[in-house]
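Field: sequence (string)
Field: structure_tokens (string)

Example rows 1 and 2, in order.
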Amino acid sequence: MASPQSLEVARRARLIYDEQLREQLEREHANEFVAIEPESARFFLGATLSEAIQAARRAFPDRLPFALRIGHNSTVHLGALAS
């Protein structure tokens, strides 16, 4: 279960994404990953989830970023496809 702090970071970062970043990022960086640090509203792109998170942590080692996959409803997909 997510902590209240994590839920608040996610809420604030999602708001930044929806209101400030979505249009540009979905047009220019679809299928990449973005990590958003909500206190600063800075964002970090990566070809992988790890790249985006690591970039955010280098810039803000003491803050919790929120990451998502650009243009998708979820950050990662779990499971296997049935044949």
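Row 2 begins here:
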Amino acid sequence: MKTINLITLALIIVGGLNWGLVGLFSFDLVAAIFGEGSALSRLVYILVGVSAVWQLVPLFSAFSTNETYAQRRG
């Protein structure tokens, strides 16, 4: 499970950086690398989206715990 969390986190970072470039410079790095509207570009966008959904699980489990950071430290 740790490996998939690291992969999905890396993909979310790639997606975030790409959106930052789009917002700042109107430059889509994924489209520039793989071609605008290409199957590979679409695959990257899909993987980033699925990764974001996957990362909701650890986010919600972190919020659902009743234990605070101070309580864990003792």
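free_text_note (row 2): The chain has one domain: 2-63.
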